[in-house]
Specification:
Mean pLDDT: 93
Strand content: 5-15%
Number of helices: 19
Low-confidence stretches: none
Largest sheet: 3 strands, antiparallel
Structural class: mainly alpha
Strand order of the largest sheet: 3-4-7
Distance between the termini: 94 Å
């Protein structure tokens, strides 16, 4: 009877800088695979490549996962039964495993110098290593060790035959063993290579599902041969399709900065909501069973299934991400929207006692990103300089002859209002249009232009006048009349 293992996935980033959306998707899918099957999601920091280590990058990893709503069950900060969870703190455990492979004839010490390897790469057609030290005699090995010659430990790959492995997304894949290099497991400094440390860490941490980009498919036979060499169970592999970006000529290529922001923090600073980014990234290469597009993290945890992951590359569409962002903004309560928008309101109005609720009422259904708000509302704080030609609008049937007449009439009627409310302003201007047998737009257009100084505004004339208040509204209408008279 087979024992059902608890699903355990791990996200093992290197602290080398910002979090690319491809890395974030990997973390998300690993998290969802674990949670959808009642398993555990582990965070492991792979920091052994000290040359690429970036100060502060570990904090970026923690902050990104927190903002994204991806909570790990085990990791450097929360502990667990399989620690330590920082690779550099595990460095003493790898060499004994490599030496065990040497003992079992699955690896060997390579004493080749850097000069020899550099020269070799120039002569071999496909680079790589010529297995020069693979069959050294015991005497040669002992002599080199006694002389203190530095060495690496290489994996002894089979020279013939084939290696076949199964992937949950791409199915069964077979490679010729002759194509596999004798990869380095332990470097001269005693540190493990990425590939070797990965296998040891995954096994000793009980990882059941290894999730990564499809670019690592070609490395998988090397991993499996290591598992076989130790007699360990091979985990389930889940290789994810590439994320592509649209080029100007309509073609696609691997997503990079030339396509736009590719970092999670960069997207947030541009005004995209973390939950909108996560929702969109979840659908980059995964298809739910129905046509649903908007998912909370909890709904993703319940709905995710490995079989929904596609083999085909996914194209990162910034317009689609913007659509998600807009939908999330629309779904907010007025209080939520105001809370998100308040820093942008204050950026324009500083310490003004402006009614933020009225701003929210006109902005929420017209906002795609919160970072767009300052530009949308700047005219409230200061009337921009504008040309009287803006009063001309064919659709509203306004021109430089009727605009001053109608604006003067509107000014006189508004000046006489006993109270300055949206309802009072509305009734005043609508009644004027009816009494003078004018289109509503013929009255509203010149009033809005005078009040805002621009043709595109969030909200119409009534909302703008209400927010500006009586004194500022009438002052701006007077300026409009002066422009039209000049």
């Amino acid at each position: 009877m087979s024992v059902i293992k608890t699903v355990r996935t791990r996200y093992a980033p290197s602290p080398t800088g910002f979090m690319h959306v491809g890395n974030l998707r990997t973390a998300l899918y690993e998290y969802l695979i674990a949670k959808s099957q009642g398993g555990a999601f582990v965070l492991r920091i792979e920091d052994t490549d000290r040359e690429r280590y970036v100060e502060g990058a570990v904090d970026v990893i923690y902050n990104t996962l927190r903002l994204a709503g991806i909570k790990h069950d085990e990791g450097p900060d929360v502990g667990g039964d399989y620690g330590p969870y920082v690779q550099s703190e595990r460095k003493d455990m790898y060499l004994p495993y490599a030496e065990q492979l040497i003992k079992n004839g699955k690896a060997y010490r390579c004493f080749c110098t850097k000069e020899r390897l550099d020269k070799l790469s120039e002569t071999l057609e496909f680079g790589g290593y010529d297995r020069h030290c693979r069959d050294l005699s015991d005497e040669e090995i002992e002599r080199n060790l006694s002389e203190g010659k530095p060495y690496v430990i290489r994996q002894k790959m089979p020279l013939d035959g084939k290696t076949t492995f199964s992937d949950a997304v791409f199915g069964e894949i077979t490679v010729e063993n002759s194509e596999l290099q004798d990869q380095i497991l332990i470097k001269t400094d005693g540190y493990p290579t990425y590939n070797f440390a990965n296998v040891i860490d995954d096994h000793t941490m009980g990882i059941t599902h290894v999730v990564r980009g499809s670019e690592y498919l070609s490395s998988t036979p090397k991993y499996n041969l290591l598992y076989d060499a130790f007699g360990w169970d091979i985990p389930t592999y889940v290789h994810l399709p590439l994320i592509m970006g649209k080029n100007e000529d309509g073609s696609v290529s691997k997503l990079s900065k030339r396509h736009g922001s590719t970092g999670f923090e960069d997207l947030i600073s541009e005004g995209y909501l973390p939950e909108a980014i996560i929702n969109y990234i979840a659908l980059l290469g995964w298809c739910p069973k129905d046509n649903k597009e908007i998912f909370t993290m909890r709904e993703l945890e319940q709905s995710f299934f490995i079989e929904g992951i596609s083999k085909s590359p996914a194209v990162f569409d910034y317009d689609k991400l913007l659509w998600f962002n807009t939908e999330y903004i629309k779904a907010m309560s007025e209080d939520e929207f105001t809370s998100h928008a308040e820093p942008y309101y204050k950026e324009v109005f500083k310490d003004s006692a402006l009614d933020y609720g009225k701003l929210t009422a006109i902005l929420q259904k017209r906002t795609e990103k919160f970072t767009d708000i300052p530009e949308k509302i700047r005219f409230f704080a200061q009337l921009p300089d504008y040309s009287k030609e803006l009063f001309v609008n064919k659709k509203s049937k306004t021109n430089l002859e009727n605009a001053p007449v109608n604006l003067r009439e509107a000014y006189n009627r508004l000046s006489a209002l006993p109270e300055w409310t949206a309802d009072a302003i509305h009734d005043c201007l609508i009644n004027m249009a009816q009494e003078l047998e004018l289109k509503n737009g013929t009255v509203m257009w010149p009033v809005r232009i005078a009040a805002a100084g621009q043709t595109v505004t969030p909200g119409g004339a009534i909302e703008i006048l209400d927010i500006l208040g009586r004194e500022e509204s009438l002052r701006r209408l007077e300026i409009g009349l002066e422009k039209l008279a000049s």
